[in-house]
Amino acid sequence: MVSASVNMFPELNSVLDIKTSDSIIGKSVGISESDVDGTFLIHHFLSYFLRNDHPVCFVTLVQSFNHFNTVSKKFGLDLAAKRNTGQLAFIEGLKSLGEFYTLDDKYDNMARGDNPFVEKGTSKHALAPLYSYIENICNGFTKDRSKPPVVIIDDISVLLSTGYSLKNSISLIQYLQSYISKLEGTLVLHINKGKGSCDEDAVSVWKHMCHFFPLQIEVCGLSSGYCRDVHGEARFILR
């Protein structure tokens, strides 16, 4: 059954064979959704790593901090408190990218009336500023925290829908995976493949993730059709 509940979290850990936080540290986790909402898994991993004292850099491209904090409080976790202690760094992805763009090319781009979220073929910006921002945060974590950092991104398909290219979206994933692995940390990426997995670019990104990520979780509608009490199914692949 695909729905978020406190009782589901231990069951997920059992399915994933996660007995301690150490058993998943150093791995990359890919989460895909199609037709049903898979963000309950983001809440699961966010809660799991924070409760196990790992520093978390959480990049959201969809919902606000208040949304995630409200949901987390239902599970007994105060994200605001975690952020105040420095254990949680929260990045509003699109807002940050817009600020990076404005700072770098304020006058030139404003004069042309460019959309800050549409990447030009010759642009030197792409997603490098977002990567650097995440890297700086994780570097700070390694100095201040004893446990390896965790980076969670929800939902990377938003980059594609707002104009960033498939190439640069995949490059961001590759750079992040390489960097986080050097820190022996964990990368968790969520992507929406569209209704019926019809978003070709998002599907291409997911195929890349499947090739390089040892843990993959696919959330989709029931193959057997509609059921009143069960909203979807999840498939787990652990290499």
TrEMBL record:
Pathway: tRNA modification; 5-methoxycarbonylmethyl-2-thiouridine-tRNA biosynthesis. It comes from the Eukaryota. One of its GO terms (biological process) is tRNA wobble uridine modification. Signal peptide: none annotated. Gene3D superfamilies: P-loop containing nucleotide triphosphate hydrolases (3.40.50.300). Belongs to the ELP6 family. It holds the Pfam family ELP6. InterPro entries: ELP6 (IPR018627), P-loop_NTPase (IPR027417). Transmembrane segments: none annotated. GO terms for cellular component: elongator holoenzyme complex. Coiled coil: none annotated. This is Elongator complex protein 6.
